[in-house]
Amino acid sequence: MTAEPLERSLDRRARLAAAGPDEASPILRTARESDLPELRRLDREVFQEVAYPGFLFRQLYDMYAGHFLVLDDGTGTLRGYVLAGTSALDRDSWILGLCVAPDRRRHGLGRELMTEILARLRRSGVERVRLTVEPGNSAAILLYRSLGFRPEGQHGGLRRDYFGPGMHRRVLRLDLTTAR
User: Fold this and answer.
1) pLDDT (tens digit per residue) in 39-56
2) 168 touches 129 (CB < 8 A)
3) ∠ Cα 132 80 121 (to 5°)
4) Which residues contact 76 (CB under 8 A, 6 or more apart)?
5) 122: helix, coil or strand?
6) What pLDDT score does 20 carry?
7) Are 23 and 76 in contact (CB under 8 A)?
8) Cα–Cα distance measured from residue 30 to residue 58, given in angstroms and rounded to the nearest whole number
9) Is the distance from CB of 85 to CB of 67 less than 8 angstroms?
10) CA 155 → CA 76, 100, 129, 163, 170, distances in Å?
């Protein structure tokens, strides 16, 4: 798989909703190596104690740079990212992270990131995409369901202790061969 270039300003409605009167319009683009410190900052801000360690961001970037997208506000501050990990030997992928800065939520930016990464995965020949989500994160679950993700397995996809004791997750799956 090769990295596809991407740099585009979000549509007018999303730009107006996401940016205040004195703020730049966010740009959706492929992550760059120089983004790693800012990605780490954003991930810590949003995910706090469960944020990825810096060394892991580095390795994930090295492995999946073509499927690592960011929202850049044009001032050096990143406002969101999505990362998909895909094996070269099969047709499955995992969304390893979706992150939108707290002050930019509820403006369609998470949907924009997910829509773009799913389109890339589909073009790459990926057939199935999975992700995990905290069971109490109803906003994220609604977003994923609206994109066609459905629970995988029994109990609504609930996997107890998925990330360790007390760290339950729902596993959701999207079949890209039938979803559009």
Assistant:
1) 999 999 999 988 999 899
2) no
3) 55
4) 38
5) helix
6) 52
7) no
8) 15
9) yes
10) 43, 28, 19, 17, 9
Q: What are phi and psi of 169, to 5 degrees?
A: -145, 155
Q: Distance between CA 113 and CA 100 in Å, rounded? A: 9
**Would you tell me how many other CB atoms lie within 10 Å of the CB of residue 179?**
13
- Here the tokens at position 149 are 């993700």
CB 87 within 8 A of CB 107: no
- Answer yes or no: is pLDDT of 100 > 90: yes
Q: Are 170 and 159 in contact, with CB atoms under 8 Å apart?
A: yes
Q: Per-residue pLDDT tens for 5-48?
A: 555 555 544 443 444 545 567 899 999 999 999 999 999 999 99
- pLDDT for 111-158, tens place per residue? 999 999 999 999 989 999 999 999 999 999 999 999 999 999 888 899
Give yes or no for a contact between 34 and 26, defined as CB atoms under 8 angstroms apart. no
- Kindly provide the b/e burial profile for residues 94-106, where b requires at least 16 CB atoms within 10 angstroms of the residue's own CB: bbbbbbbbeebee
